[in-house]
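Letters spell out the chain; backbone shape is given numerically. Take this protein:
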Amino acid sequence: MILISKIFIISLIVFVVLMGILLVMYFVGNKMQKKQIEQREQIEAASQPATLFIIDKKIMPMKDAKLPKVVMDQAPKRYHRAKLPIVKAKVGPQIMTLICDEAIFDDVPSHGEVKVTLSGIYITSVKTLHKKTKKMQQEEAANGKKRRKSLRERLMRKQADYQKQLDYEMANKKSKEEIKQQKAEQKKKREREKKITV
């Protein structure tokens, strides 16, 4: 009897601790998601179209990427060893090292001219590809062996899918809010018209 009560108390304590951890993770996750949405809005506000000639693309540590000194100074030291999708591209007359969004890294060709949306040194989206570049990509895919994707690549693809889903949901949410605002404005207009006619 005493043994059963001890097991019950221990399992109850473990359950309470697990619930506490889940609650903390939920609130931290919500906070991080809001922060990410705000950052994405800032990136979109500062973005502008550009035409690049892609020289090379790699996933490499931040310290080996030869990024501008200002970027390295602003980044926390723990991120210096983190691997980032880096694109070396010719922007106008100069060659620059840019950071690519992980969601579109696979869509960026390894060589060729591409129209992209840039926010500082961050490539947010690939708009269109020239026909030659598309042909080169298709030839590379046909000639190259289909290699098995690493765990990192699979996780990046999953993250990209989740990000697209989040963007879609945010766009739907905005459109629903806009529709509500329009309906509210129309209702106010009708009420004003009624007051004027009376």
Notes: Strands lie at 48-61, 83-91, 94-100, 112-119, 122-129.
